[in-house]
């Protein structure tokens, strides 16, 4: 009987510690969300997975998703913004060619086969050409391009990109003009 009581006490201690840890994690998540929301980030509350210990999973929303959810952009504007964002992200240089003393025939930088590197470079060149076309549709206007780069390309919300609510509304207005131009072209 004594052994059963001791196991019960240990189980109670473990359960109490787990509950305290869960509360601390929950408070940390709430604090992080509050700070990020204060900076202008948007989050969507997803449905919890069955059997998941978390009861409120969060998913950070991209700027275009947030604008569409609020009903501030049309489907055509959203599609144009997504095309711009895809070209922007692919056109960004992400491969760093490192130095190595172990040179193997047919291997390029980052351990990728040479054919894969050439294919990736081809995709990047095509994306750069598409991005240049989209920027010509915006008449090369710096404010329109910057708005698209920040919201469509870097996937920031207007408030997050501009650093505040008032400037975020101005950036959103500029972005709407840019998306109209891109959707019409």
What's this model, at a glance?
By secondary structure, the protein is mainly alpha-helical. 66% of the residues lie in helices and 4% in strands.
How is this structure best described in words?
21% of the residues are buried. By secondary structure, the protein is mainly alpha-helical. 66% of the residues lie in helices and 4% in strands. A two-stranded antiparallel ribbon has the order 1-2.
| Alpha-beta classification | mainly alpha
The residue fraction in helices comes out at 55-70%
**Strand arrangement in the largest pleated sheet:** 1-2
Runs in which pLDDT lies below 50 for 5 or more consecutive residues are none
Identify the overall geometry. elongated
Distance between the termini: 80 Å
Percent strand equals under 5%
Write the element-wise H/E pattern from the N-terminal end onward.
HEEHHHHHH
Give the beta-strand count: 2
Could you report the average pLDDT, rounded to the nearest whole number?
A: 82
Rg from alpha-carbon coordinates: 24 Å
What does the largest sheet look like?
Answer: 2 strands, antiparallel
Number of helical segments with 4 or more residues:
7
Which oligomerization state do the chains in this entry correspond to? single chain
Q: What is the domain tally?
A: 2
């Amino acid at each position: 009987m004594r052994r059963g009581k001791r196991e019960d006490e240990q189980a109670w201690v473990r359960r109490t510690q787990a509950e305290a840890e869960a509360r601390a994690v929950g408070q940390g998540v709430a604090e992080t969300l509050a700070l990020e929301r204060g900076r202008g980030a948007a989050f969507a509350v997803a449905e919890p997975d069955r059997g998941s210990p978390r009861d409120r999973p969060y998913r950070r929303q991209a700027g275009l998703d947030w604008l569409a959810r609020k009903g501030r952009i049309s489907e055509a504007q959203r599609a144009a913004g997504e095309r711009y964002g895809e070209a922007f992200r692919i056109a960004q240089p992400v491969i760093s060619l490192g130095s190595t003393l172990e040179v193997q025939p047919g291997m390029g930088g980052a351990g990728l086969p040479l054919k894969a590197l050439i294919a990736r470079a081809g995709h990047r060149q095509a994306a750069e050409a598409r991005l240049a076309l989209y920027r010509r549709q915006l008449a090369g206007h710096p404010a329109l391009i910057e708005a698209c780069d920040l919201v469509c390309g870097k996937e920031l919300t207007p408030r997050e990109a501009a650093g505040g609510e008032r400037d975020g509304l101005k950036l959103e207005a500029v972005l709407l003009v840019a998306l109209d131009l891109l959707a019409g072209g």
